[in-house]
Amino acid sequence: MKKKNTGMKWIIAIVIIGLIAALMIPRLRRSKDVAGDEVEVKTGSIKTYYSFSGSIEAKNRQ
Q: What is the arithmetic mean of pLDDT over 30-51?
């Protein structure tokens, strides 16, 4: 008799886990709206050039 109860407990546990998974999968697959702006993608260069004039001095001179 003990063997039947153990087998039945496993079957009930698997059915409960299956039901929980069946309820959670549609929620996880639902499309989520992203807060933000839509921007058109452009191709181009990402190079940036900086030009400075002046002199650089050390903060702590010896």
A: 80
Q: Name the maximum alpha-carbon separation found in the chain.
A: 92
Residue 27: the pLDDT is 82
- Token pair in block for residue 1: 């008799």
Say what the alpha-carbon torsion angle 56, 60, 61, 62 is, to the nearest 10 degrees.
-150
4 token code pair: 């039947």
Q: Note the Cα 34 to chain centre separation in Å.
A: 12
**Structure letter (DSSP) for residue 32:** P
Enumerate residues 6+ apart whose C-beta is below 8 A from 21: none
| Percentage of the residues of the chain whose pLDDT score is greater than 70 | 87
Q: How confident is the model at residue 15 (pLDDT cuts 50, 70, 90)?
A: very high
